[in-house]
């Protein structure tokens, strides 16, 4: 990567750590991120058979809180936060424009009755934040915590044993799409039973000042457990193999959730939200375009 290009990119708090362990860095969504450490195939297969550790700190965390928080979240997303979320629960949802196109797909964490964390895609952070603020007619408070948050994922069957050893929380009790706050080697962390690899795994959120120490502890245990650090290259092949969409590639503002096989994340009956009228119309008229996947029978480029 040319030096002048590298200097213009954002870096996570773990940048120098990645350099030390031999990461190959590329530009992704305005960030300089590891695409691989050893090689993509080895990293992919290691996650499938053992465990991998990922730096996902380029992702965005936007917190909505205060008296109007739930009302604003309900307006923004297609899924039903009011009907499905309780404290400690996580919800996947598209966020649409008035035409029903997907501005982004995100996770909603209910931290408290009046406090929600939206985890958005890295390349969409600024646009999503501005969109959320522009539609805040509910006196909610909105805070972009992306630059102050480190997100590390531990994915693969050995992730449970590793975290159970390092954490003060019984991670075996955390169900899929639930989270719990706890300590990992004394560091305060949100331990989230989520992932983008199609495997048993966790995503761990902490304050940026603890990021390097948290990575170091998890990295040592990952290597000891036969695992590897994993870059964005294998993250992409893992999610593709698992049939998980990537915003900007598989879905975008020209595609709707109904076209993208995400109707399970659309709650038309919850009441009004941005894009609802267009989605009701599309459902009534019928879907003419649909996202499909192909299973590759031979070695080839997906």
TrEMBL record:
<protein>
    <recommendedName>
        <fullName>GCVT N-terminal domain-containing protein</fullName>
    </recommendedName>
</protein>
<dbReference type="Pfam" id="PF01571">
    <property type="entry name" value="GCV_T"/>
</dbReference>
<dbReference type="InterPro" id="IPR027266">
    <property type="entry name" value="TrmE/GcvT-like"/>
</dbReference>
<dbReference type="GO" id="GO:0005960">
    <property type="term" value="C:glycine cleavage complex"/>
</dbReference>
<keyword id="KW-0032">Aminotransferase</keyword>
<dbReference type="InterPro" id="IPR006222">
    <property type="entry name" value="GCVT_N"/>
</dbReference>
<dbReference type="GO" id="GO:0006546">
    <property type="term" value="P:glycine catabolic process"/>
</dbReference>
<dbReference type="GO" id="GO:0008483">
    <property type="term" value="F:transaminase activity"/>
</dbReference>
<dbReference type="GO" id="GO:0005829">
    <property type="term" value="C:cytosol"/>
</dbReference>
<dbReference type="InterPro" id="IPR006223">
    <property type="entry name" value="GcvT"/>
</dbReference>
<dbReference type="InterPro" id="IPR028896">
    <property type="entry name" value="GcvT/YgfZ/DmdA"/>
</dbReference>
<keyword id="KW-0808">Transferase</keyword>
<dbReference type="GO" id="GO:0004047">
    <property type="term" value="F:aminomethyltransferase activity"/>
</dbReference>
<comment type="similarity">
    <text>Belongs to the GcvT family.</text>
</comment>
<feature type="domain" description="GCVT N-terminal">
    <location>
        <begin position="14"/>
        <end position="270"/>
    </location>
</feature>
